[in-house]
Design a protein that fits this description.
Blueprint (H helix, E strand, L loop, with lengths): L8 H8 L2 H4 L5 H12 L1 H21 L17 H4 L2 H6 L7
Length: 97
């Protein structure tokens, strides 16, 4: 198992203290796979968001479904917050990912 940690210096410093307990070195193949996955992460997240939007819209129109909670739907109680300048800058590709 491996992963990537991104954040400010203080957060990374806290995790780095656990390095000896958690292990700090992954094998070359795992590192390669991790980098390979990161290269396409933005594409996968964008598609995830697109799919989530399509599902929310489909379910919202479905006669058996009573309510769909998804912030980009115009009737969602927090739609205004979700589509305000800051939220749109934070989530330019949608809210599903």
């Amino acid at each position: 198992m491996c992963g990537v940690l991104a954040g400010d210096k203080e957060l990374i410093g806290k995790v780095r203290k656990l390095h000896g307990v958690l292990g700090g070195v992954i094998d070359p193949h795992a590192a390669y796979m991790l980098i390979r996955g990161l290269k396409t992460l933005h594409l996968r997240v964008a598609q995830h968001n697109k799919n989530a939007q399509a599902i929310a819209e489909y379910l919202d129109k479905h006669p058996v479904i009573e309510k769909v909670h998804y912030p980009s739907l115009s009737h969602h109680r927090d739609h205004g917050v979700a589509t305000r300048g800051g939220a749109v800058k934070m989530f330019p590709n949608g809210f599903g990912g």
